[in-house]
Amino acid sequence: MRNSLLPLPPAPPVARRSLRRVMWFAKLKVALVAVSLAGLAMSVVGFVALRAYAAHNLQLVARSVGYTVEAALVFRDPAAAAEAISLIASPEDVAEIAVSDAQGQPFALWRRPDEGRFQGLEDHVGRLVFPEPVVLPLVRGPDTIGSVRLVGHGGALLHFLLMGLAGLLVCLFLSALAAAYSSRRVVRHITRPLTNLAVVAHAVRRERAFAQRVPASEIRELNTLGEDFNGLLDEFEGWQRTLQDENSTLAHRASHDSLTGLRNRAFFESRFNRAVREAEETGERLALLFVDADRFKDINDSWGHAAGDAVLVCLASRLRAQVRETDLVGRLGGDEFAILITPLHDAADARHIAENLAACMREPMPLPEGSTLQTSVSVGVAIYPEDGRSTQALMMCADAAMYTAKSRRRADGRRAADPSPHSDIDIQERPRAHV
């Protein structure tokens, strides 16, 4: 029992590498990989180019030999052919040249003499690079008088590969030295500010006691820095979220109507001013619609403000449903709404939208206590640039058109039933949009 109550021994400390050592190894790895890839790529490209050059050179040597030994073949002089071949082939990267007559019988043969201890390796490289010999028929007039057969030599390619390997090793060695020197300089520049920052972070942590957040690091210095800043990060993130939420709420309140959720008058007018300026620049049309709920005061007086608010919310929803996503619907105040249609392709489209707005009011609106009522709207339309070229002129035109439509309804003697808490309001006449 006593042993079970004893505290567990502390875990052994985790071995961590120093920043200097980590940076030195990282720079060394990057330098070695970069130099190796670059050297390998250059070697491959150079090898392919040199092989193509060597193959082309063999073709040229074969032609030169063919031109030279043609006369010797005709006059059957093998000694002259062998001497000419030796003069041509000695300075070239050719392992063997064989000349045959028209019957395929050997006529002259030249082989490169053994030039040192790398001869076997050069022959092996030559067989790998030039697996097939170059054969060139010798034609004189309509007849084939013989052929020249060349076998490539790998001496030049082997020399290129050895020089490339030596250069790569030298570059790797120099890269290691450069990485060591660079890492020392970088560590001297980084460790000092990190140490100072760690001292400040320790002081902040002791005073505020922030929670940890960053995972542990293998580097001692960075691990200490992470422990000190974990708490600060949580605090900063909390402050940032709070500020963002408050800014978002304030921005929404500043540009939206609190009851209907539509854009408010200030935002609508600002957007309308910008739309008119853009229309002046692009030459496009736009339409401004003023919408007013008919007999809204009677609804408030008879059914109460809760019913009036419900009517406004339902009216806003129906207005929003009748226009495009790109169009703007706003509440100017009270029972007055405004709609900005941009771009407007045809004036008839604005009239059609106004008729749809009036038609969508035929469906009864639900009230909070469960009853319904039916009302109507008066719509005034102003079109840019026909009805005005300024925001003030367009708003005055749309407002006048809306009140003209409302006055015509009253002048025609078409009245809704007296609204009361005991009967729904039903305005049968569909209002006309006045332009």
Automatic annotation (TrEMBL):
Disordered: region residues: 408-435
InterPro entries: CHASE8 (IPR033417), DGC-Regulatory_Protein (IPR052163), GGDEF_dom (IPR000160), HAMP_dom (IPR003660), Nucleotide_cyclase (IPR029787), Rev_trsase/Diguanyl_cyclase (IPR043128)
A Pfam family of this chain: HAMP
Domain GGDEF residue range list: 284-419
HAMP domain span: 188-241
CDD domains per record: GGDEF
SMART domains listed in its UniProt record: GGDEF (SM00267)
Keywords carried by this UniProt record: Membrane, Transmembrane, Transmembrane helix
Transmembrane segments: 30-54, 157-182
GO molecular function, one term: catalytic activity
Highest rank taxon of the organism: Bacteria
Residue ranges with Basic and acidic residues bias: 413-435
Recorded coiled-coil stretches: none
Gene Ontology biological-process entries: signal transduction
Family annotation (PROSITE patterns): GGDEF (PS50887), HAMP (PS50885)
Name the UniProt record assigns to this protein: Inner membrane protein YfiN
